[in-house]
Write a structure and sequence with these properties.
The structure holds two protein chains of two kinds. Helix content of chain A is 70%, strand content 3%. Chain A is mainly alpha-helical. Classes of the chains: A mainly alpha, B alpha/beta.
Chain lengths: 634, 398
């Protein structure tokens, strides 16, 4: 009995810092609809800043002053980022802000190492809270009690702020319907900036309060960001109370779960999220998202297949790629093959995101499943590469069938988070099931057949797969299925009224995307000669998202360009500098600001501005008939 | 910002794309997790720089200048393979070295086997790299998981403790270390039992609940294999909660300055650890290294420095030992190769390609507010390895 009580207290203490960070993220999302990937970076900056300040200012007053001051400094940084960067791209397509904040996150990781050095830093303990309190004969750190008390206090303060100040009322109104708030004449700019600053302040405070418990290091941000997203989603987006309850649920389940399954921490939060989302699609305290108001008056550029001239251009491009092996060296060809693999991967995600209107945060799951499928065949049945390439992706397909069935019941960010949960569950199976998958050591010796083992041969193989794959996906876009899918994306109600079953359409799209991701994954396994759990990991999923967004989300095949640019850049920077994350992050941020519609979207705009099409007499100025998305042909 | 540790001339040659190695220099490739794990790789890089400077100041490899081209793997095996490919097929290096993470090391080892290029694994600790997944072209420098588990189990067996609990990060490194320790301790002490285990995810330990769970099983002794930030959380929580009081603790790698220094005045007393007590090693070989290192870098060495330094010394030794710089020639010369390191002379065993680099074992203590290893003793690596005949049986038949 005493043990259970003490374990509960430990869980509550862990919940407190999770709640602080999560509440900030939830508030930001609620008002600005920004999925702030940089939230973890601000958490980390809060800890680093607090480390420096507590080092300078001693004594109790100095310590607590330093914690608050550090959080304020970081909040100012956050507000600056919002003003300089995000304000420019609020009009960009959904999720584009995610790309911008992802770029910032990459930069911050390298910047903290440059400023504070590579070593883990240990800050002082909190004055007055260094000891332990004996509870039923067991010692509980007094700092834990402070944290346990802090959670409800912050929750209460936020409640007062939101219910008894004009600003708070505006924030709540904006969370419910920000278009209406704007229509009523509220200055959105400052509302957004102040909300962002508050959210970042809470993140930084959460980080600063960690320094008496742990070391400060440059990997803190990634350690918390995903978990925080999960907590926000379990609680319900935009709901601070939900974040509070979800943080407690997750922490307590972890505290007791490890007693029965000592290895459960790795996966617990994702299991909880998957269960919650399947039962309550909008999280515990969330409300169903109101249908987005179609943006009226946007120019429409319907997608159309290639014109004959464009077809010739594409054919020339493919031919140009096919003769590259006669000019390039082995290393360049291997890099080329890697880029081609990711072209197909990005194209499959792009299909799901733009045609299906479903942004997946866990697309790497199917890439990885395809890779493992191929590896299993080679390792356990001795199948040759050709068979493994054909059959391996079926595992990606199978995964997409099962996971997709649950996922398409949801939409928007909840859909994205459920895909993430499933991807993490798949990842943890690959990571934990050492006997079969080799755990994080991966499966080695998955090398291609002799004819494809030379860099030249494999390049052609990868090119063939990518060209056929992207070609099929394009054909699908312009098939009746593709039109139906776009209909249910643009207006669920209208398409259902004319007899299109949205769910089954989207499920099929999910399976198609998963299968093509599986094919690229299987190819990747043979390119690398090995398979590792990080193929299914979050970074791979994020890479895919970045490629799609970079290429342009409102285009038919922008992902191809996005994949080539991003992957080539990433490989080249990795080889040239230790600060690859800093440079890559900066480039992403610049691209986001320069091309808010993605590279291909930008080129499309440019072309239409120079040469408006005459077909159908429909110029780009034609007003929309309630179509939410701008489609760009290419 | 290509990190060519060598002359500007070498950089120029590469930049202008000259494919073949310039007369009078030998290029080797090196890969490590520079951006992902700077706490280890910065000292490691400094150790390499020192060794390289010493070798080239002394005339290089038989008059040829040694040039090391370093690449970052970002902590991912897939990216390590890309880098390896670049080094081998574009830069034309004669051999590969480096690696920190076990999975990166295994990926590079498999690359070495497939592409027939020599790979000297610097740090990866996994036993698979020389045993169950060993191959003809892969050799490993660092004192392995098994060897350090054997050293710690030897000390652990002397303790009266019968009930043991384990805490290790939940991935292959932690799992295989705990398995080896259990096996070796049980062999020496059939009466011990393992009563609890905790597997926190790497970098995300929830120390309070984990320690309560361990405490509830009432063990006599605790085996810990967490490190870096996880270790600090564990120590702080454990000290406050009194979980370590009256219990023996055996802790893997904790004596390495990389992990011990952040603990400062909270370093627990009396933990049995492996590590690197640079402040109290009195051998001539180490003193010479220490003086040279501190003169060059104005900093004290970490264990990474020893690994980086010894890696480059091994590279130089093998390139000097034979004039046949083909992979087969080098692999042949690696077998039984003798190298002088700051930890004394080591031999790369012919049968399983593991070096006999030893390790220091001691107990933790505090001096001047800093964590140190008290009474460190050096353990010869050779004494804690299975015999060459037995080890050869652990390797796959090629």
């Amino acid at each position: 009995m005493e043990f259970i009580l003490v374990q509960t207290l430990s869980g509550l203490a862990s919940a407190a810092s999770l709640f602080l960070v999560a509440s900030g993220l939830s508030i930001i999302f609620g008002v600005t609809r920004i999925v702030n990937f940089a939230h973890g970076a601000f958490y980390m900056l809060g800890a680093y800043m607090a480390f420096t300040l507590t080092d300078r200012w001693t004594g109790a007053f100095g310590f607590w002053g330093a914690i608050i001051a550090a959080s304020l400094v970081v909040a100012v940084l956050g507000a600056l980022m919002e003003m300089v960067l995000l304000r420019r791209i609020y009009q960009a397509p959904e999720l584009f802000q995610l790309l911008a904040t992802f770029g910032v996150t990459l930069m911050v990781q390298d910047i903290v190492v440059l400023i504070w050095g590579p070593e883990d830093l240990m800050g002082p303990r909190a004055p007055g809270f260094t000891g332990a309190v004996t509870v039923f004969g067991r010692m509980v750190p007094s700092y834990d009690f402070l944290l346990i008390a802090l959670g409800p206090v912050v929750l209460g303060l936020l409640w007062l702020l939101f219910h008894y100040t004009r600003w708070g009322v505006l924030v709540r109104a904006a969370t419910q319907d920000r278009d209406m708030v704007a229509a009523l004449g509220v200055n959105q700019k400052w509302l957004f900036t102040s909300v962002f600053a508050l959210g970042v302040f809470l993140a930084a405070l959460g980080g600063a309060l960690q320094i008496p418990r742990t070391t400060v290091s440059h990997s803190m941000d990634l350690a918390i960001i995903v978990e925080v997203f999960v907590v926000v989603v379990i609680g319900g987006l935009g709901s601070v109370l939900g974040a509070f309850v979800a943080a407690i649920i997750v922490s307590e389940l972890n505290a007791f779960g490890i007693l029965i399954f000592p290895k459960i921490s790795l996966i617990l939060v994702f299991l909880v999220m998957a269960v919650v989302l399947v039962i309550r699609p909008w999280g515990l305290f969330g409300k169903p998202e109101s249908a987005p108001r179609p943006a009226a008056g946007l120019s429409i550029r319907p997608w159309r297949p290639f014109t004959p001239a464009e077809r010739i251009a594409v054919a020339v491009g493919v031919f140009g790629a096919a003769v590259l092996p006669f000019f390039l060296g082995n290393y360049a060809l291997t890099v080329g093959a890697e880029i081609l693999v990711f072209v197909l991967f990005a194209a499959s995600l792009h299909f799901l995101m733009t045609v299906g209107g479903l942004a997946s945060f866990g697309h790497a799951a199917y890439f990885g499943l395809g890779a493992y499928g191929a590896a299993f065949l080679v390792k356990f049945t001795g199948a040759p590469m050709e068979a493994a390439l054909l059959v391996g992706p079926l595992m990606g397909l199978a995964g997409a069938v099962v996971f997709g069935w649950f996922c398409v019941r949801l939409s928007g960010v909840y859909f994205a988070m459920l895909t993430l949960a499933f991807a993490q569950i798949a990842w943890s199976i690959a990571f934990q099931w050492v006997d079969v998958t080799g755990g994080d050591n991966g499966m080695l010796g998955i090398w291609p057949s002799t004819w494809a083992s030379s860099p030249r041969g494999f390049f052609w193989l990868a090119l063939g797969i990518a060209v056929v794959g992207v070609g099929i996906l394009r054909v699908l876009v312009f098939s009746p299925f593709g039109y139906g899918l776009r209909a249910s994306r643009d207006s669920a109600l209208r398409s259902e009224a004319i007899g299109i079953d949205r769910r089954s359409m989207q499920w099929v799209a999910f399976i198609v995307a998963g299968t093509f991701a599986g094919i690229s994954g299987a190819t990747f396994a043979f390119l690398k000669g090995s398979v590792f759990p990080d193929f299914l990991g979050i970074p791979t999923s994020v890479d895919g998202l970045v490629m799609v967004l970079l290429g342009g989300i409102e285009t038919v095949s922008g992902a191809v360009v996005g994949a080539v640019v991003y992957k080539a850049l990433a490989i080249w920077l990795m080889s040239q500098t230790d600060l690859s994350k800093l440079v890559l992050g900066a480039i992403i941020v610049l691209l986001v600001v320069a091309f808010p519609k993605g590279i291909v979207g930008f080129l499309e705009d440019l072309r239409y501005r120079l040469r408006p099409p005459r077909a159908n007499g429909a110029g780009p100025k034609t007003a929309g008939y309630g179509i939410a998305k701008v489609e760009a042909a290419e | 910002m290509k990190k060519i540790i060598g002359s500007a001339l070498a950089a120029l040659v590469l930049a202008t794309g000259a494919a073949s190695a310039q007369q009078g220099e030998i290029k080797v490739g090196e890969i490590n997790s520079y951006s992902a794990l700077p706490a280890f790789t910065e000292p490691y890089r400094k150790g390499m720089e020192l060794a390289l400077k010493e070798i080239n100041d002394a005339g290089g490899i038989k008059g040829k200048k040694l040039v090391i081209i370093s690449k970052d793997d970002g902590g991912k095996p897939g990216d390590a393979l890309t880098a390896a490919n670049e080094l081998v097929s574009r830069d034309g290096v004669v051999l590969l070295a480096g690696g920190f993470l076990s999975n990166v090391g295994l990926a590079l080892a498999d690359f070495a086997k497939q592409k027939k290029v020599l790979y000297i694994a610097a740090e990866p600790l996994t036993d698979a790299i020389v045993w169950s997944k060993g191959n003809d072209y892969t050799f490993r420098l660092r004192t392995s998981n098994y060897m350090q588990a054997a050293m710690l189990a030897e000390e652990a067996a002397k303790l009266p403790a019968k009930r043991w609990a384990t805490i290790a990060p939940n991935y292959e490194f932690g799992q295989s270390f705990v398995a080896a320790f259990k096996e070796l301790l049980t062999k020496r002490r059939p009466d011990v039992e393992f009563v609890a285990e905790q597997w926190p995810p790497l970098g995300k330990i929830d120390a309070g609940p984990v320690l309560q769970a361990i405490d509830a099983a009432k063990p006599d002794a605790i085996l810990n294999a967490t490190f870096a930030g996880d270790l600090v959380k564990l120590v702080r929580e454990g000290n406050t909660r009194g979980v370590f009081k009256d219990r023996a603790v055996v802790s893997y790698l904790t004596g390495e300055p990389e992990y011990l220094d952040p603990l400062k005045e909270e370093t627990p007393a009396g933990w049995i650890v492996t590590g690197y007590p640079w402040y109290s090693i009195k051998t001539a070989a180490h003193q010479a290294f220490l003086d040279a290192y501190q003169q060059l870098h104005k900093d004290y060495p970490r264990l990474g420095s020893i690994v980086g330094y010894s890696t480059v010394k091994s590279i130089a030794a093998v390139l000097t030992a034979t004039d046949d710089h083909s992979t087969d020639g080098l692999a042949k010369a690696m077998k039984g190769l003798k190298v002088d390191t700051p930890f004394g002379s080591i031999v790369y065993r012919a049968a399983d390609h593991q070096s006999t680099l030893g390790a220091y074992i001691g107990t933790t203590g505090i001096r001047d507010g800093k964590g140190i290893m008290v009474d460190p003793v050096f353990r010869e690596g050779a004494a804690y390895l299975p015999s060459e005949a037995d080890a050869a049986k652990l390797r796959p038949a090629n």
